[in-house]
Large ribosomal subunit protein bL35 (Sinisalibacter aestuarii), 66 residues
Amino acid sequence: MPKMKTKSSCKKRFSMTASGRVKTGQAGKRHGMIKRHKKFIRQARGTTLLSKADEQIIKPMMPYSR
């Protein structure tokens, strides 16, 4: 049985938590920050967890990170 492949784009962008959720960087912070309000910038710090629907898309692409 050959090894399953992990999507390289997923291993760069996502990581798994101990409880099995998918952790990712906050979206919407690459450019155009001058037009964002201060509350958005504060709340968008750090990382966030993906929704359950998005997790179902990502988890099959990362077979060895469970």
Q: What stands out?
A: Residues 12 and 24 are 10 Å apart (CA to CA). The beta strands are 14-16, 22-25, 47-49. The chain has one domain: 8-60.
